[in-house]
Amino acid sequence: MVLEALTGTLAGRAIGLLGPNGSGKSTLVNTLLGFHRPSRGSARVLGLDIVGRSREIRAAVGYMPENDAFIGTMSGIHFVRYMAELSGVPAGQALERAHEAMFFVGLGEVRYRKISTYSLGMKQLVKLAQALAHGPRLLILDEPTNGLDPIARQRMIQLVRQVRDSGETRILLSSHLLRDVDETCDEVLILKDGRIAAIRNLEEERRANRRFIELETVGAAEAFGAAIRRLGCECASFPAGRWKLVMPESVGIRDLYLIAAEQSVQIRRMHYRRDSLEDIFLEAMGSRLKVQHAHN
Amino acid sequence: MPITKRSYHAYTGTVTGTASRFGVLMRYAFMDASDSRITSLIGLACLVPSLVVMIVIYVMNNDAVRLLIGDTGSPLPINEKFFLVVMHVQSWPALALTAWVGPRLISADMSNGGLPLLLSRPISRVEYVLAKMVVLAGFLSVVTWVPAVLLFAFQSHVSTKPWAGSHLHILGGMLAGSWLWIAVLCLLSLAVASWVRWRIVATATVIAAVFIPSGFAGVFNLSLRTHWGWLLSLPYMMSELWRRWLHAPPSPFMRAQLPTWSMLLAITALAAVMVLVLNARIRAREVVRG
Known about the structure:
The structure holds 2 protein chains of 2 kinds. Chain A is of the alpha/beta class. Helix content of chain A is 42%, strand content 21%. Chain A is built from 11 helices and 12 strands. In chain A, helix 3 runs parallel beside helix 5. By secondary structure, chain B is mainly α. Chain B has one domain. In chain B, 71% of the residues lie in helices and 0% in strands. Chain B has 11 helices and no strands. In chain B, helix 8 packs across helix 9. The longest helix of chain B has 32 residues. The two termini of chain B are 40 Å apart. In chain B, 39% of the residues are buried.
């Protein structure tokens, strides 16, 4: 059994599916598309049951698989049009949508070339184009930046963000790269060994992180600490004048500077915590390991 | 909106019905198959025997022409045996067409992982295979039962005596025999093409899959002194079934006769194996790496 005890609801605009290799990400995607029949349990995509209404789900979904997935003998435009027609777009509109999708992903100039002659980056982009051509309500991207160089990767991430920001299509992005998920998603499901290790709302985490500040100070440490605690901040002090603090909503950065001035403390460095997803991921992996150790 | 505008927007137009998506599969399959000069050449070559047979029928029914070309003997009878030869002459070139067209319909989808994409659309695996089969059956019909029916009609037309009414069993036999042959060829070529990804290798394998078991059948029969080995030979079984359905006399070289049910059972078993192969291979499975 690859997936087990998956219970949860994902409702974000862009949902990241994270996990190490072999954690069941692609299996989950394939199950949601109806390629694998669940031995027990149920799931709904866009409110539709994956067993009984997989045809409707597939009509509403655009899918970009992880591996090579194209018909090499076809030109890019022909291929994307074919896929759009199979999703239910009438032939005339499918051709128009195929042109639009090819230009959108940046393959407008090479759209009449056979796909077998495309570079790896172009093949990834044509996979994205075919997934978008019929204007899906949900776009499922399985490792969309696989094998891309940094520039092509950035381009792919930018396209995914544009689709997300259009507000017309929800995204489910499966990846083992934290950065891809961090840059595009507002909700994350972390899988480990086919089980849910964590479900987090990244937007909320980011908002919370804006309240989490690390400081390096020089000066009267104890008095400074007492003053910021009186403001309602939770804080912890570390050697060499380093502080970690969580500010309540009512407290601003300016308040910290005012207290520092009152206490004659110099703030040498200040930054927000930024590696939230990595923390979540490591925590999720760790918690699963702890659970396993406990069972053993 | 200009197509070159680089922004994303959802599709809000009309959506076609399920049946028309089956039509889309067939249309693209037909384009793939016919987009080759070799397909056209093989198709035309398959029709040449029918043209020759038509000329023979015309000559045999026209005493003046026979005299003109110096044929003073008794005319070749246009009967069950004649149409059995017609079926043989048409059906084996059809195998060549199948071996060429069948793999073209599937190999391209299989070789670069296009199948998961196709099957992630609102179509089923059965619809996918059926659409390909219908296209292939269409190609094969043009070179098998359609010319056979036309030749039957032509003979009925040019015959100086009433002919069609007393030979309707020939028409039924040709239709049944051709459709059985088409069904077997469609299943065989699609199953082989789904298994062997390289198109040219698949083409060779289709031909080999028809003839190599016949060799084994001969060895089996000789070594075990039986005639049941012919159940491995598709050419033998098809020839025999055609002969029986056309009510043609048995060949003097073929002493052993297998019961019709056993041959139909063997062909059904072969078809079942092909369906199992298609079921195993035509899947929207991704290679799960992570």
